[in-house]
Design a protein that fits this description.
single chain
Amino acid sequence: EAILRQLDIQQKMLLITTCQDYSPTMARAKAKIYRSRAWKVAFGVAACGVIPYAGTVVNAGTMVSTVLLFKKGFGLNQASVSKLADLTGKSEVDLQRFVDEKLSFVNKIIQFFQGKIDRQHLKVAMSEGTTAAATALLTLLAMDATIDTAVPFVGGLVTAPASFGLTWYALATVIELQEACVRDLYELAFR
C-alpha cells in the first residue's frame, strides 16, 4: 500500500493489473482504484449513448473490456487462477470452478453486453441471485432500452444520464463482487 500511495493513477493501474497478489489488503486497494476509475468509464459510455444505435455497440464493447480488465487485475481470469494453482498446489479445476461460481452474475453481465444472452436470460440469472444490486441493475437496463427503442433519436439524449448511472452502478457492482471473490479465493487457496 505504501508503494501505491507514491504512484500516479496510470502507474497504479499498471501495477495492480500486473501484480498477482491475492491478499485482502491488495484486494481492497485494487477495488478502491477501480472504483475511482469507474466514473470515467461511465462518462464515456454516457457520451457514446447519445449516438442513436451506434452508442449501444460502443457501450457494450466498453463494458466488456472494462469488466475483463478488472477481472484480470484482480487475478480472477483463467491464466491467473492457473498460476495461483501452481503456486499453492491446489487443483486448478477446483479454483476455477470456485471463481466461476462466485462470479456467475458478473459472467452473465459480460454475456449480456456481448450479445450472447438477451434481457430475459439476464433477468433469470439476476432473479437467482435476488440481490438488491441485481434488481436495480435490471430495472436500469430495462428503462434504458425502453426509452432508446421508443424514441431512438431523442432517446439517447434522455437516457445519457441514465446510461451514466447504469454503467457506474454496474461497474460498482462488478467491482464489489470481484473483490469479494478474490478475498474468498485467497482463503480457499492459502488454507
